[in-house]
């Protein structure tokens, strides 16, 4: 009986991939979805930034603004739409559907907990973490 419950739970969670997040794949996603607003260097100076109602965040200083810790959960929730971000008079475009995948991965949060997300979103987050200014 317990085995059936575990199998049913795993079926609802999706496939957990043993694959590690890939920063290079994340950079490619960034260039496809984020660069227009956040800019090539993620400083918030993309060509669309001046059209937004708010200052486009500098994504390279997320850790600095969070006491030196990259805010994985906050970033994931803003990108996939669970925590809306107002931009040009409305929400930041929600890229969750484009970054969803049958391949899920668990990223460790600063709290020690893990957060499940699709492989593409994990790749993007690992890339963003890799470009943080020291």
Notes on the structure:
The chain is 39% helix and 10% strand.
Short summary of the structure?
The protein starts with a helix and ends with a helix. It has helices at 2-13, 23-33, 35-38, 72-80, 96-99, 119-130, and strands at 15-16, 103-108, 114-118.
How many individual β-strands?
A: 3
Structure annotation, total helices = 6
Elements, N to C (H/E): HEHHHHEEH
Biggest β-sheet description: 3 strands, mixed
Helix content: 25-40%
- Cα shape: globular
Query: Which structural class do the helices and strands define?
Result: alpha+beta
Rg calculated over all Cα atoms: 16 Å
Strand content: 5-15%
Please give the alpha-carbon distance between the first and last residues.
Answer: 51 Å
Placed side by side, the strands forming the largest sheet appear as 1-2-3
Mean of the pLDDT scores? 83
Residue runs with pLDDT of under 50 for 5 or more positions: 1-18
Protein topology:
Blueprint: H1 2-13, E1 15-16, H2 23-33, H3 35-38, H4 72-80, H5 96-99, E2 103-108, E3 114-118, H6 119-130
Parallel strand pairs: 1-2
Antiparallel strand pairs: 2-3
Helix pairs in contact: 2-6, 4-6
């Amino acid at each position: 009986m317990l085995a059936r419950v575990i199998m049913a739970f795993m079926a609802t969670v999706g496939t957990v991939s043993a694959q590690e997040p890939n920063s290079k794949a994340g950079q490619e996603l960034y260039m496809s979805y984020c660069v227009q607003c956040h800019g090539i260097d993620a400083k918030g100076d993309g060509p669309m930034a001046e059209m937004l109602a708010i200052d486009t965040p500098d994504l390279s200083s997320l850790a600095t603004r969070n006491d030196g810790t990259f805010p994985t959960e906050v970033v994931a929730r803003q990108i996939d739409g669970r925590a809306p971000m107002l931009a040009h008079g409305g929400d930041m475009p929600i890229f969750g559907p484009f970054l969803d995948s049958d391949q899920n991965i668990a990223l460790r949060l600063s709290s020690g907990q893990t957060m499940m997300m699709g492989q593409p979103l994990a790749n993007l987050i690992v890339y963003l973490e890799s470009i943080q200014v020291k």
